[in-house]
């Protein structure tokens, strides 16, 4: 692809679907990944850092700085989700310990540095709790104006939660940070964050069949996966990246199956990465958004005031419609081609 590459900064709690978001960006020629912030969430922040560094190394990428964020959310003790993402965050996949290092500055500073290095150009993507971004906004309140675009995977709009009956994981882990981030935007900023909640991302269901298409696009050998396979059965795919993604995805399939959702897995975070590069992949509507911080039953709930009863102006664009087939066509062609060129066997 020719043309100018768009600088992208990714904040993740890697995480199976965060890993899929990362490889989507690696495979996107129009994106220049200028930094990765690691946030505590699916697994503790040190493990998130290891996963990010190890994935970069697996993919032969040497020039993307990785920064460590806070060990804890702003005000609440950290909860992690090894039941969903596996003991180390990448499902059944195990990567060698990374040999590369983190930046000497932390993840909040990484946000601020990246925004100042690319004023008016940087696309931010957050697919974990918003702790780092909230700390970055405290350090530099001009940050929203420096960004070109921000895409957040978080919340659930007019839709049930996946962590409490009403709250989505990323917001639920650190509700105060989410509230601070939403409060930092208004129409004066010049752009509104695009927020993709479970109402949208649960339409993006990866299946064994789609994973087979991905392996084929990578030119990899593969064995069809099925709900009848032994749990944790290791991938025998010939491509090294496809092997890791299959081992990661199998755990995610098993988790979703145990939840009664079928032998499939929701790719929440890759949708955010894809929308960051092409906002046309979703239809969104502006609304004032707030985060419930005090409800005894509803803490972490995201509320969109569609009918403007609060009398406030919109502070977010909420994703309301997506074409999953268009997303998967793009995901498979990009990640497949990227994986293919990694295979030197
Ligand atoms: C979000 O929670 C995490 O477990 C996933 O990585 C995703 O970012 C979905 O609620
Ligand atoms: Ca995530």
UniProtKB/TrEMBL annotation:
One of its GO terms (biological process) is purine nucleoside catabolic process. It holds the Pfam family IU_nuc_hydro. Its EC number is 3.2.-.-. GO terms for cellular component: cytosol. It is an enzyme of class 3 (hydrolase). Residues 8-329 form the Inosine/uridine-preferring nucleoside hydrolase domain. The keyword Ribonucleoprotein does not apply. This is Pyrimidine-specific ribonucleoside hydrolase RihA. The lineage of its organism: Bacteria, Bacillati, Actinomycetota, Actinomycetes, Mycobacteriales. The gene is rihA.
């Amino acid at each position: 692809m020719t043309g100018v590459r768009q600088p992208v900064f990714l904040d993740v709690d890697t995480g199976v679907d965060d890993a899929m978001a990362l490889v989507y960006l690696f495979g996107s020629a129009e994106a220049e990944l200028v930094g990765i912030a690691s946030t505590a969430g699916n697994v503790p922040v040190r493990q998130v850092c290891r996963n990010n560094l190890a994935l970069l190394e697996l993919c032969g990428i040497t020039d993307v700085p990785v920064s460590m964020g806070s060990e804890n959310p702003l005000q609440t003790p950290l909860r992690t989700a090894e039941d969903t993402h596996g003991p180390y965050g990448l499902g059944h996949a195990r990567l060698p310990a990374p040999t590369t290092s983190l930046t000497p500055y932390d993840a909040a500073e990484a946000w601020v540095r990246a925004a100042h290095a690319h004023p008016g150009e940087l696309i931010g993507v957050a697919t974990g709790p918003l702790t780092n971004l909230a700390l970055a906004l405290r350090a530099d309140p001009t940050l929203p104006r420096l960004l070109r675009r921000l895409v957040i995977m978080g919340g659930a709009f007019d839709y049930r939660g996946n962590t409490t009956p009403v709250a989505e994981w990323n917001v639920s882990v650190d509700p105060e940070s989410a509230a601070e981030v939403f409060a930092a935007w208004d129409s004066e900023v010049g752009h509104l964050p695009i927020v993709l909640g479970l109402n949208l991302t649960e339409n993006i269901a990866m299946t064994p069949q789609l994973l087979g298409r991905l392996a084929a696009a990578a030119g990899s050998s593969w064995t069809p996966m099925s709900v009848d396979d032994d749990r944790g059965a290791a991938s025998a795919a010939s491509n090294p990246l496809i092997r890791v993604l299959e081992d990661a995805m199998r755990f995610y399939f098993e988790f979703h199956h145990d939840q009664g959702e079928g032998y499939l897995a929701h790719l929440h975070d890759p949708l955010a990465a894809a929308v960051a590069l092409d906002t046309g992949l979703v239809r969104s509507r502006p609304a004032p958004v707030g985060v419930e911080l005090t409800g005894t039953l509803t803490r972490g709930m995201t509320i969109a005031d569609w009918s403007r009863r609060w009398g406030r102006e919109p502070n977010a664009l909420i994703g309301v419609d997506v074409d999953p087939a268009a997303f998967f066509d793009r995901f498979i062609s990009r990640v497949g081609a990227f994986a293919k060129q990694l295979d030197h066997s």
